[in-house]
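User: My collaborator sent over this chain with a note saying "see what the structure looks like." That's all I know about it. Can you take a look?
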Amino acid sequence: MNKINNLKNNVKENQDKKYTNPELAKKLIKYVDIEPHQILLDPFKGRGAFYDNYPEKNKKFWCEIDEGVDFFDYKNPVHWVVSNPPYSVLNKVFDHLIKICKKGFALLLGMINLSIKRIKYLETNGFFITKIKLLRVRGWFGTSCFVVWEKNKKSILDYDDEIYSMPDDQEKIYKDYI
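Assistant: Without extra context I'll predict from the sequence alone. Here is the result:
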């Protein structure tokens, strides 16, 4: 029982450290239209699953807070960011990505993190979803998605931003949860 409690406590302390399987990272990188002359950045290198599998012909950089290199201090422009970000600061991550990415960014996210509000914010700043790959990762919460945003490209998404109510009899039951 102590092993289970220790695992639960350790998981709670490291919620933003969900490392990516290198084989998955390799597959996802191929999903992004990276050209050989483009500069790449892995802002959350972790164990290097993405960074170590970036194409060899590309100039590449990394950040990793645990190694003293903070992404939010990184100011140089790059063409692409391809990574698995910490979800607890995702809005801050998006704010910084729109400042430094010339071509786009591709992130491995939990589906719950892909909200209409975030999508609209990125579209307002010129970045549009051009690809989405849904996947399952054992041990991660729910369905994951690898999302590619490209600057000034046509979005593949169609969404309805209106907020709808449930039928009246259901609305009364769930009113405290809205």
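A starting point for your reply to your collaborator: Residues 81 and 105 are 5 Å apart (CA to CA).
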